[in-house]
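Entry:
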Amino acid sequence: MRIIDRYILRNHIGPYFFGIAIITFVFVMDFIFRYLDLFIGKGVDFLVVLEFFVLSLGHMFALIIPMAVMPATLMAFGQLSSENEVTALKAMGISLYRMILPALVAAVILSVALVYYNNRILPESNHRLMNLMIDIGKMKPTIEIKENIFSDAFKGYTILVREKDDKTGRIEDVQIFEKKKGGIPRTITAARGKMTFNEEENILRFELEDGEIHEMPEPADITTYLKTHFKNYTLNIRDSERKLERSDRSHRGDREMSAAMMQAKIEEIRRNMEVIKDHMHQVAIKPVATLFAPALPELAPIAEEPVPDAPVPTPIPPPGQARERKTEGQEEKVLQILENESHILESNRNQINRYGVEIHKKYSIPFSCIIFVLLGAPLAIRSGKKGMTMAIGFSILFFLVYYVFLISGEKLADRRFMSPWIAMWMPNIVFSVAAVLLLHRTVKESQTINWDRLNLFKRWRNRGPTRDE
């Protein structure tokens, strides 16, 4: 049996690495199309681009590794089936369950390795990638200025450009606000101009045409307002460094954390929520206790307890006197405090759900390796020779459906329409049921899939003449 196990695994190795190569190529093409303009515009060094690419492979492999399992299983067992080796193994008394056992054990090992990868290597890779992206974003100042967006990338200036040509540097409809301490910003407007960066002098230069300068040297004296028209005007912004400066950002997003780090963050958020709930309780009960303390002395201790930001209402007036309306403003303050803190609680619950989604994702995606083996093996065997190509098509369809399930569940869980664990494990549950049913029917040798019957075009082409004809 060890020889057979090794033979089956050997049939998987080639297709698996072939699948990884093909899927990696698709991801790399997407990477190039997405970031090529960024690297060209920034003038990033080749080694920095290479580092960025290697770090990007971190989150790519988290999907590529399980994605390659399905086509590898289909190709391996499809080959065994097409050469009648599956029939020979059955004749030797080896069941299909035993045939897929080596591939299943390999999938389990791969899943465990992916869990370790997702919790140890991937968070650090994503953290370094995010730091590098932020550092690259600060490099070339001309890239920071985008059309119809106010840019505060340069200290002391806010810049708005309606139209911009990155190749020639031409700009249209320009507004520049030069900030001054304790004064009104100087406003420069121009119909057109040109923006260039001088690397040697480290200067961002604006050569403006047909514009105005508005300034008020003395903000308290309106008579100092000046309006200057110009035909040509040059503005130099110094210290606009474009060199890559490395930074060590300590903050981590949810995809830059391990499951243990996110679980600790969830516990911290829950403790803060308990503090907020306790404060809301005190804020809500304090006015009531103060209001009824004269009539109910047992409420006096509660009324005397200090509560931060909790308004103290007026006590109940003596019988026969009209109640004053001074408490209305205080009640509004209490309601405002409760409303603000309820919003904080809502935000914390959403944050807990986002962390929960990422935690379960670190385990659900690796588990898909096992499911794809259970699903791919019987599908390849039942399809036979004719259905091999169509079976591979089905594997792509299955993964697309799986991915849609995953993304949709993530969005629903983030909006708290669904529990994080259900959202992330639902595709695994659905595909597990389908895999078990398909595997069972294949072992029982139920009717195999008739691919010719599914091919509607072939059925129409081969249909014979009718009686009327």
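The radius of gyration is 34 Å.
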